[in-house]
Design goal:
Elements lengths: L1 H16 L25 E7 L2 H7 L9 E10 L5 E3 L11 H7 L5 H11 L6 H25 L4 E3 L3 E10 L8 E6 L5 E7 L4 E3 L1
Antiparallel strand pairs: 1-2, 1-8, 2-5, 3-4, 3-6, 6-7, 7-8
Helix pairs in contact: 1-5, 3-5, 4-5
Length: 204
Amino acid sequence: MKLQKSIFLWVISIVLCTGCARYEAQPLAKAGLATHEKKPTSYRCAYHVFTKDDCKRYLGRNVVAKGYQPILITFTNNTKRYFRVLRENISMPTIPASQVVRRVHTSTVGRSLGYGIAGLIVWPLLIPAIVDGIRSSQANYKLDRDFASKELADQVVGPFVTLDGLIFVPKEKFSWNFTIKIIDAETEEVLTLKSHPASGELSE
């Protein structure tokens, strides 16, 4: 009886130690990175280049270390016009979030394999192998959904609407001087907005 209790407590302690396969990140809406005063009857575009700390806080992973530079783009439309915002109209090449997220997925294959092999000898070790695999899968699912929801989507921004979203640029292709072309959806007028690193704004 004492042996069974000891084995049970041992297994529980191992399971608790496998809790590192998690994903936690704050929403962009709470980032407070693009709080700019609104100009009446006008539009405003701003950006914030993520640091490593920003990545860990709002993406749960240091994607800069994986070779990608995230940039938060905020476009506020305080006019009665409709504007098209497309990632292809950004002067820097961008990488889809779905590609970036694959590089930062939680992987516990090595640890689970170790538990599994040991479990062939000591069966209780099979339990943390299973738990680790489940937690890893759950973390990656949350990771995929969060990155997809935070990515800058191609869309038409209507009157009095603010668009927030992330773009991911290959680190070697990143430049502080870049442009975004915003298109008037009705007149097809193209507005070329240039970055201003000192202010974090994009303007004509």
